[in-house]
Amino acid sequence: MKNIKTLCFLALSLVLLQPASAQQNPRLPALMLRLDDIGMNHSVNMAMQKMADTGMPFSASVQFACPWYQEAVEILKKNPQIAVGVHLTLTSEWKNYRWGPVTGRGAVPSLVDANGYFPQSTGAFAKSGYQIAEVERELTAQIERALASGLKITYIDPHMGVALSTPALRALTERLAHKYKLAISTLSEVVYFGETYKEMWGEPVATKKSAFLSYVTTKLNPARPNLVVIHVALMNPEMNALFDMNSSMMNTREGKPLTSLHRQTELNMLLSPEFKALVNKKFRLINYSDLVKQKGLAAMKLETVKN
Question: Which structural domain range is residue 171 located in?
Answer without folding.
Answer: 24-304
